[in-house]
Batch of 2 targets.
Target 1
Amino acid sequence: MIRSEILKHIAPILDGQLAVCNIGIPSQELHAIHDQASNFYMLGTMGLASSIGLGLALAQPKTVIAIDGDGSVLTNLGTLPTIANNVANNFILLIIDNGSYGSTGDQPTYAGMKTKLEDVARACGCENVIACAAEDTGTTLQAAIDSGKQTVIVCKCESGNAKMPVITMDPVTIRDRFMGAVKA
Amino acid sequence: MNISEKLVADFAANDVGFITTVPCKQLAGVIDAVEAHPDIRHIPANKEDEGMGLCAGAFMGGTRSAIIMQNTAIGVTINTLVTLIQYYRIPLPMLISYRGELREPVACQAEMAVHTKALLAQLNIPTYHFHKLSDADEFDAILKYTFMCNKPVAILTDASFWGGYGE
């Protein structure tokens, strides 16, 4: 499975949930597969999906799912100690780990080589770290939501991108409708 | 109430309930006051762009947020300021230690100081410079202005404002 197939697979679980989605093709794929007001699409600023998601989870009680990538987590590796030491039990970090920088031409990441992000997360102090195969993402994500515990999921999949249109929605519109969904 | 407590009391009076910090010796008293304040959640960040992401999330969650950092962070966070904070129109007070100004003991700090205001001007970020203690009388108005206009706003606080740098 590639990322877009995982997003299609978990779309029914994401329905109605607050989702903060990683920059580039991941957001384009989620937007094309299951657009909803409770999706926050990052149009810039690689690496900050997990930080935005944690800040959101700490500020309000609804479940927050940050959909991140291995390359973006490597860009902002300092996020993992912050997540570990500021536990928000309504926060799930879903790292779709395809071992490549998908939005920039599928260059390999170190997560596809020696570095295992699940081990990094545990070493940073994160509890409830689960590595799963792509086809188990749905059940793993649903279990994490049901557990009511902060969870980091590293889902291993193949490298590749679906051809989806660029998001043309204005950022203020994205932010405004997202904040409406947070408050609803 | 000392100046650190006054600044943090102004944050709280303006409903800022979430502050991320990256350490600075000059701002140590403010960071302690943030940590001690019962109405403010303090989240130390490992890097300033990470801190701005946390602030953006907290703001979208309904809690006004702010960041406390050094001026060197302007160099670190330009992309985040432009493509997250400004692009999505997120209000963000940035209480900044203006290192490299008069009474600075570390020469390298002057290298970033000479670029600080020019970078903020280039980014069209409203910028205030606290040099004397009485300058902080405007802090409350600056916070109100920030949340009125939904912009990042820089408050530079230099060594003279803080009474020197331990000399």
Target 2
Amino acid sequence: MQHQPPHIPDQGVFKAAFSLTLPIAMGYVPVGMAYGVLAGKAGLSAVNVLLMSVLVYAGSAQLVAVGLFASGAALASIVATTFAVNLRHVLFAAAMSPLLRGWRKRELAAFAFELTDESFALHAARFGRGDRDKALTLTINVLAQASWVGGTALGLLVGDVMGDGRAFALDFALPGMFLALLAGQLAGPSQVAAAVAGAGLSLGAAALGITGYGALAAGLAGAACGFGVEKWMTRKPV
Amino acid sequence: MDDAKACLTIVAMAGVTYLTRSAPLLALAGRTLSPWAIRLLAHVPAAVLAALVAPALLRPDGRMDFGLGNVVLWAGLASFALAVRTRGFFGPVALGMGIVAAARYVLG
């Protein structure tokens, strides 16, 4: 690995990062706007709406949280749901870990703060083709988050003219994101089984009027089902 | 919820989110989790995402709705089909939002 100077990235790195981040930003700005509009309408203050994009920086978890804030959910329920929705990051981080061997602790800590579905996909592809530049990696992450926070601010600004946002289908942004993320997860029968079990149990819980932790519990039980199916499929012949 | 409590909630959300992103990088540092833990964790995303999205599609107004008027369901199926085919992310979301917005405009 070549040594990177510790000072601010030069213009070359910035340019390269900008063009690599552009496709991510083209998605983050509109979805960030949807979050900004909906969060503003959920009764959060503008400062809190922006704070969430700066500190949490996880699109789907933020949109779920907005729905929970709007329905008056308790702190513990919002935090537990955020944790479950973001558990997939453990897998991304575990997959990146061997690629980032040799990085210092504080560099890893900075990298982890801005690890998202999209930045993981981009970095995994870059590192796969041998592009392991540390300054470029961290600059991409900062630019991607800047586009998310910028989108959020735009959403706060235009929120008043968007009405309840239904005419612009803003209420579809979250299920749409979940479906796209889900499609990327369904590699093999055990993953499909986990999804079907999670969906079925969640609908069952909703039909019984179990809200709040219902979907969360259904998801974890569904994961156990998928794990069981995989165990069964890879069992050793007796 | 008042602003201070909402702020506290957001900080706690940030804490658990950072935990999911940093723990494997900082704690593992080259080592790996036990194989069964990895396999169980590997099934959490699909199951949790499906559990969260299913009621949004099938119970948009708090009861099961397979009707043609449930535009979120039909847009969701189109979105999902495109995502499975292209592995894209924002294309499918944009398609679904376009369908929902157009259907609401036409249906009034």
